[in-house]
Design brief:
Length: 824
């Protein structure tokens, strides 16, 4: 059996590396000396971090190579996970823990007078994602390795990622995230895995005598080189190590030397700059035509490079392109890689000369598609002229697919012109646009939602007509998270307490957490549990003091909402309720108010005006509330800048109350809700996304549910909803909205929030007014429960105990069994 390099000879294998702390310490010093050129006495903390990474990396590589050989020998199906985001966070502690070397590494470093916790904080977060989509992909990569599914993740090696968020005068400021400035010791450049990717140009018929009628020759006007960088992703206990392969873009000609010598120094580098822009940032602002074009270029660039790599590997090992579906399962994570459907068709038609029907059969059996949203703006579409100019051959293929798709729908019967229009890959309403969600659906054998509610709504709304045409394709795979990172690593105090109480079974089978049920009303365990939570809150308070000079009391109720800033996630509802609470505390100082700290974190897309305005409002409300002596010690509001994975690992273990308050029917799943709950926070939320299933698992008495259901939201929108009447009927809501709109929190610009608040009065699409009273009542219920420490602790413990089903290991096993047909 050949290998990636073609070497088939039997070579000696290195001796297994030892895990003894003394040996580890010696290896770290050797790496420090011979890899970094530093003497231990002169080494700085970042040098120690680099040396530790190199030491643990060697052990990961051993398992990586072993996993690769195992996959080749078995010749089974391999999973390829295509995602524009992989929010992997810091990797050092993750790798050390998963290789079961955390305590040994701690001891080794202690013998060298180095604190592992201090150097771990120096590792930069990989800026490869933004929010839940990217973090889910990262959890899935770790779980695929853990449950022994051979897999590659494919994405883009962003130089600057989303952006680094700073807050200036309350406004979000976007700065480059320079995580690669000092290199990345986890990655390996694979120069042999380099492919040309083209854009634009012309399409001509193939002139070979044996060419098929569908075979064409695409002659791109522009070409770039995609080069792979591989990062090993270790599963739990080092059982398998899979590969995250990220693409960077390089020009064919880095510098046009004749132009440079002629004095045109800027023009000489234009090809280099154009190529490098492909991998510079995640989600370039698409409010301009140039931004839209760059984003489509990015999506095709990584999709085309990934498919070339997949096909090359398949041909190398199996020879026949027709067996691709038997050996490769390609998962499209949202619509970003949906152009892969047209790209694989192009490869099969033009490079391998298959006829259209056979190529389409192979394509559909190879691809599966995960839908993450019902929001129209998130189901990508591209102007047809833009798509055709950049990818002329792909546009021809899309039209051919669409012709067959619509003919199939008409033959099936029962589809009127409106339904046919909904199924069409081309939206003919107004500017003609190519619907990428429809392309992904049509080109996949499986389409899954990410929570039970989301999957049901997908069948009823955005893909209702597709579901009628293909009634067996849509299925549900409720999201999960990896508890190795989100409990064992980020909350060592709780992990140790749970382990002491119920043993080790939950470390390999998260459902074993259910054994903790027996301790929910154990007063001694409750006391230890609350002490761990208090320590986590004190740690967060110290971090915020150091980073933003915030002073918060760990004894207060920590009420936290951290996620991407978007109107449907309703940070605005939370802020309005904070203003209402502020008014009530001042108006009724005689009441026994629960001290509360409201923490917000998240980034707004650079072109999303209202989301950025919501961040400003949060900071304006914080400025007023936090300086009012009437509420000192009772209410604190703080926006935490540059929320990322590492900040989540500090905030989530410290949370008492988890805000999961999206408008029902709009959040596909959520995974933050799962992370908070397994760390002992109570959820306050709507019956949206995975909240529904969380309520079923933790029990309705252990979660604070409020607000309209998805069906009630739909009914209100359909039957004429009058938000102004709702607002005027609620004294607390009307006063809070009036205060915001009139400039109480923006005295220098009284009308700053007029448009934002008028939107609630005029249409309230996100049901802020409709849900306010129910939300406020749930918050006061939380206050009453907080005052009964034993009751609060028992409910929090039940949440930890009953979250095992929401492990990403369970989710991946379902994907492997039902979609990929891979037997771990």
């Amino acid at each position: 059996m050949p290998t990636e390099t073609g070497v088939t000879a039997s070579l000696p294998k290195p001796e297994p590396r030892q895990s003894d702390p003394t040996i580890l310490a010696r290896e770290i010093v050797e790496r420090l000396t011979y890899r970094l050129g530093k003497d231990a006495t002169a080494a700085q903390p970042h040098d120690w971090l680099h040396a530790v990474i190199l030491s643990i990396r060697d052990r990961v590589i051993d398992a990586w190579i072993s996993s690769t050989h195992k996959t080749y020998e078995e010749q089974g199906r391999r999973v390829y996970y295509l995602s524009l985001e992989f929010l992997i966070g810091r990797l050092m502690r993750d790798a050390v823990s998963n290789m079961e070397l955390l305590e040994e590494m701690r001891q080794a470093l202690a013998s060298l007078n180095v604190d592992i916790d201090i150097i771990a904080e120096l590792e930069p977060d990989a800026a490869l994602g933004n929010g839940g989509l990217g973090r889910l992909a990262a959890c899935f990569m770790e779980s695929m390795a853990t449950v022994d599914v051979p897999a590659y993740g494919y994405g883009i090696r962003y130089v600057n990622g989303m952006f680094r968020q700073e807050i200036s005068d309350g406004w979000q400021v976007e700065l480059p995230e320079t995580w690669l400035t000092h290199g990345n010791p986890w990655e390996f450049e694979r120069r042999e895995a380099s492919y040309e990717v083209g854009f634009g140009g012309l399409v001509d018929p193939a002139e070979d005598e044996d060419a098929t009628p569908h075979q064409m020759v695409w002659r791109p006007a522009e070409r770039v080189i995609a080069t792979a960088f591989d990062t090993p992703i270790a599963g739990w206990r080092g059982k398998r190590v899979n590969t995250l392969r990220l693409w960077t873009a390089q020009p064919i000609d880095p510098i046009l030397l004749d132009r440079f010598n002629a004095g045109d120094h800027v023009g000489a580098l234009q090809e280099s700059n154009r190529a490098e822009s492909l991998t510079r940032v995640l989600y370039p602002a698409d409010s301009s035509p140039a931004g839209q074009e760059l984003r489509l270029r990015q999506e095709y660039f990584f999709s085309a490079a990934s498919l070339q790599d997949i096909v090359r590997r398949h041909i190398q090992y199996f020879g026949d392109i027709r067996t691709l579906p038997d050996k490769a399962a390609i998962q499209l994570n949202d619509t970003h890689p949906a152009v892969s459907v047209a790209e694989l068709m192009r490869v099969l038609l033009d490079q391998y000369g298959l006829d259209f029907d056979e190529a389409w059969d192979i394509t559909r059996r190879t691809f599966s598609y995960t839908n993450h949203t019902l929001l129209p703006e998130a189901l990508e579409s591209w102007p047809v002229p833009l798509f055709e100019r950049l990818l002329p051959r792909h546009m021809q293929i899309v039209y051919a697919i669409n012709s067959r798709l619509l003919a199939e729908a008409r033959r099936a019967g029962g589809f009127d012109d409106a339904a046919i229009g909904t199924i069409s890959l081309i939206d003919e309403g107004g500017e003609r646009r190519l619907r990428m969600g429809n392309l992904a659906f049509a080109g996949s054998h499986s389409i899954n939602g990410v929570s039970a509610l989301h999957t049901d709504l997908m069948k009823q709304t955005v893909f209702a007509d597709f579901h009628r045409l293909y009634p067996t394709r849509i299925n549900n795979k409720t999201n999960g998270v990896t508890f190795r990172r989100w409990l064992m690593q980020c909350n060592p105090g709780l992990f140790s307490l749970v382990r002491e109480a119920i043993g080790d079974r939950f470390m390999d089978d998260a459902e074993g957490l259910r054994d903790l049920d027996a301790f929910a009303h154990d007063s001694a365990f409750q006391e230890k549990f609350l002490a761990v939570k208090r320590a986590n809150k004190a740690h967060l308070a110290q971090v915020l003091r150091e980073r933003v000079n915030a002073r918060i009391d760990p004894a207060a109720l920590f009420d936290i909402q951290i996620k991407r800033i978007h109107e449907y996630k309703r940070q605005l509802l939370n802020i309005v309720e904070a203003v209402s609470l502020y008014d009530q505390i001042r108006s009724h100082p005689e009441r026994d108010w629960v001290p509360r700290v409201k923490l917000f974190g998240g980034k707004a897309a650079s072109s999303y005006h209202n989301a950025k305005l919501i961040i400003k409002l949060a900071n304006d409300v914080a400025r007023v509330v936090n300086h009012d002596p009437a509420v000192q010690g009772l209410l604190k509001v703080q926006f935490v800048p540059n929320y990322n994975v590492s900040m989540a690992e500090i905030m989530i273990p410290a949370a008492d109350l988890s805000e999961q308050i999206s408008t029902a029917g709009m959040e596909a799943s959520g995974t933050g809700n799962m992370k908070f709950a397994v760390n002992g926070a109570l959820t306050i939320g709507t019956l949206d996304g995975a909240n529904v299933e969380m309520r079923d698992h933790v029990g309705p008495d252990n979660i604070l549910i409020f607000g309209l259901t998805a069906q009630e939201v739909a009914d209100r929108r359909a039957n004429g909803y009058a938000p102004r009447d709702v607002i005027e009927a609620s004294c607390e809501l009307s006063q809070a909205l009036s205060a915001i709109r009139s400039g109480v929190f923006s005295p220098g610009q009284p009308d700053r929030y007029a448009g934002l608040i008028d939107g609630i009065y005029d249409h309230d699409w996100f049901m802020v007014a409709a849900d306010f009273d129910s939300y406020a009542a749930a918050q006061r219920q939380a206050d009453r429960l907080w005052n009964d420490k034993a009751a609060w602790a028992s409910k929090a413990i039940y949440n930890v105990a009953r979250m095992g089903w929401f492990s990403s290991d369970r989710t991946i096993r379902e994907y492997a069994r039902d979609i990929w047909k891979v037997l771990p």
